[in-house]
Amino acid sequence: MAALEVRGLRKQFGGVVALNGIDLDIGTDQVVGIVGPNGSGKTTLFNVVTGVHPATAGTVSWQGQDITNIGAHRIARKRLVRTFQQAMSFPGLTVDENVRIAWEQGRMGGSRWASPGMILDFVGLAPLGRAIAGSLPFGSLRRLGLAVALGVSPELLLLDEPGAGLNDSEAQAFAAVIAQLPPQGIGVCLIDHDMDMMAELCDRLVVLDFGTKIAEGPPAEVLNDPKVREVYLGP
Ligand code: ADP
């Protein structure tokens, strides 16, 4: 049984069908990439899975429990955690303080990290611990966003465009940190437009088009699928 099991997930916004019956399984030992053109439903999938928006139909189960529509806060407490494109931290506090606040929150049910310092080491921010979060360069701010999300001890982390706005070397360094998560028992599901990064990082790609899953499998296979090429390159 996969940790996350999505079945027949449907989401309508008025007359717009954003998700049209999605099935998806994700384990905590995997990096799964969600790709597809703009408007294909990627962000909506994250929003419905994490309870930001209610599902119109279908189910989301997490570690064997039905969590469909139980609400974003309750879902996050179950260690199914998402990040947003904009890192949500306290800009006036130091890097250390930001991570400590998240770590204190996550400690309640038992943290995988003995101290917040371990998280800073893990994401490569230890030398910047005393820096004010709001003064960090963009690449480091993105790492801080990851550190804050890790602070609450996720077992599955949903990352919405972690590479957006990063230059090539920052994106590569960030991908290297993400690749270290599944060996720690933290599954990753991410949305990103950088296909080179996705192909390298992901064990599996899921391609959405108009709210429907049109392909799923190892990146090399999926990116050569004629249906996928048509969506990206046109007929
Ligand atoms: P993607 O992340 O792949 O770009 P989205 O999930 O953002 O796609 O959008 C899928 C579809 O749902 C689009 O047609 C979009 O306009 C619509 N949509 C997304 N969020 C909302 C919302 N809050 N209200 C109305 N329509 C929405």
Automatic annotation (TrEMBL):
<protein>
    <submittedName>
        <fullName>ABC transporter ATP-binding protein</fullName>
    </submittedName>
</protein>
<dbReference type="InterPro" id="IPR003439">
    <property type="entry name" value="ABC_transporter-like_ATP-bd"/>
</dbReference>
<feature type="domain" description="ABC transporter">
    <location>
        <begin position="4"/>
        <end position="235"/>
    </location>
</feature>
<keyword id="KW-0067">ATP-binding</keyword>
<dbReference type="GO" id="GO:0005524">
    <property type="term" value="F:ATP binding"/>
</dbReference>
<dbReference type="InterPro" id="IPR032823">
    <property type="entry name" value="BCA_ABC_TP_C"/>
</dbReference>
<dbReference type="InterPro" id="IPR051120">
    <property type="entry name" value="ABC_AA/LPS_Transport"/>
</dbReference>
<dbReference type="InterPro" id="IPR027417">
    <property type="entry name" value="P-loop_NTPase"/>
</dbReference>
<dbReference type="InterPro" id="IPR003593">
    <property type="entry name" value="AAA+_ATPase"/>
</dbReference>
<dbReference type="Pfam" id="PF12399">
    <property type="entry name" value="BCA_ABC_TP_C"/>
</dbReference>
<keyword id="KW-0813">Transport</keyword>
<keyword id="KW-0547">Nucleotide-binding</keyword>
<dbReference type="Pfam" id="PF00005">
    <property type="entry name" value="ABC_tran"/>
</dbReference>
